[in-house]
């Protein structure tokens, strides 16, 4: 009898210990079809200020980071459509914690651990990298009751993982790549944090499902869209990123279809300076992470030739007499939308010249439509119908 009781006690203890290791997936949001809203901020503050002297050294560093992201993709023909895919890479599509990048503070795990996710519109993966560096926001998987992994590699030094993620006040279960570089790797010196990829799934470097599409399919989001709206305070460097809908009520947006799957690339009919059309049929990628409008060198020269006194600076930047104050509009879906900022700041304190918003970039004919235009509008990205909507903020 004593032996039976002893054996029973051991079995109960084993069950109790095993139960402690059952993966907890987090409580799914009780709301069916929600809109999740989170504030995002630009690391290091706003890159440019029309009322201040331009920091050309910082401009160039941020520009190079932006160009690096776009250089790591290629176009492919898939059936009767063109898609964009990532090149075979030994490392992630974009580094974490770069100056000038947009990021969101979110809670990952249970109990929640604050992780800063960099917004990346040239990737579709969710990454979390935990390094030995004291910089950044490190995620400790062992401290989360809801973390689960089968320890299968989905990329170099990265395993497929599952945990709960809080966006605003909404909780989701998310699959992501959890990366831990080996101690001998120079990557251990990089800051910890995450990357939130918002491009189409063709730009995935892992086999994991796209968070956004997966959440919509499971009925956790009201609509298959996300939206970005800048804060109207020109002195701030913040915006609102919303999933499943828009943060605030607006008139119906004007939509244009995505031309190449991968980036959020659409066709703009024309660009106008002071009421005159100077360029047309612009293939533009909407990218909130770019503080500039990037364009092919020839197009940039045509644009600045329409502004009296404009002259080139170094590294693809241009300047023009500040008193010219050009009125720049871009045509989208039959409507003219103004650039919020026509100047990135003065060249020098005592200078009468301002740095223009268009920057030369050889991206195989592509434009990258960034902050000088997007600050004045709300941008809506529709996964379901593969289109981009724009409306005045």
UniProtKB/TrEMBL annotation:
Keywords: Signal. Residues 102-391 form the Peptidase A1 domain. GO terms for biological process: proteolysis. GO terms for molecular function: aspartic-type endopeptidase activity. Transmembrane segments: none annotated. Residues 1-20 form the signal peptide. It comes from the Eukaryota. Pfam families: Asp. Belongs to the peptidase A1 family. This is Peptidase A1 domain-containing protein. It comes from Lipomyces starkeyi NRRL Y-11557.
